[in-house]
């Protein structure tokens, strides 16, 4: 469906400006700052540009190719959100359904009092925790790498949603033993909310998360290279993942050939960050969102649901609602919908964008967005942790929007 690159001029792009992408990526590779990278731009449902640079395995010298498999980490979150919204459309769950009605372990959840320094400084939440709080990251849940007593306890108890250990249902039950960081709905905070939402999908559907994804999303969209565990035959296509050292060298984090994501090794399905995919597979998912819930003959969501997903659910932008901690996007001028960030004011966001474009990124510096106004999809893949290492996303946006010749 997306194998052919169309004439970019017919899609409103300047070919000479699109040609800037490859040397841009190559410059990062040549300086030893990225292992390899890949970009794809589509408009009106047609691919306008695709480019690759560098290596998917630096040690082996294997080139990055179009079919390279990559850890998309938090770009899993929009897929989990779509899974939940499919159940929402079937009236099997509502946005305001209390979480404890689905997962009883959250029935007696407590919340830290303001300024708390220990886990025993808690009170009953003023607002009942709902699934809407999960999908909008206003639940009061957090990540173990953040600051504060809850994050510290998560680190001490090794409470995370890593593919290497644990079980989703058991991990969520352990998580429910800890208090929330703040009253549900009172703030925005990036955390494990979408992992819990994945467990909600399991409980409501009666299906394991990986099977729900395959049967209800991947198979209908033709996504044959997206999974939690990489089949043995596809391991050679998996890129290695790297982290930047203080000396700005690349240190191997997870070798593709020896990956923890191999079939038979994966123990936990993380709806917040566990998937492996390719740029073409993720393009199919993103094109479904651009198509207002449909791709080809498959309809996953109604147009009104996609519009709801891409509508800011906060009172203002992240800067007005959030905490100064990690996020995959900037705070100023950016809102958050049902599982995706939404551009509210490009000027405040200080980035090339359209009002209403939506998407998300992943820990290995990946990113995607859908621009309904321009009928455009953009995806960037690499494998460098963390995503805040370099300003790749802002540069990617600058290159993409500056290549447009017409709205």
TrEMBL record:
This is CubicO group peptidase, beta-lactamase class C family. Gene3D superfamilies: DD-peptidase/beta-lactamase superfamily. It holds the Pfam family Beta-lactamase. Residues 30-390 form the Beta-lactamase-related domain. InterPro entries: Beta-lactam-related, Beta-lactam/transpept-like, Diverse_Enzym_Activities.
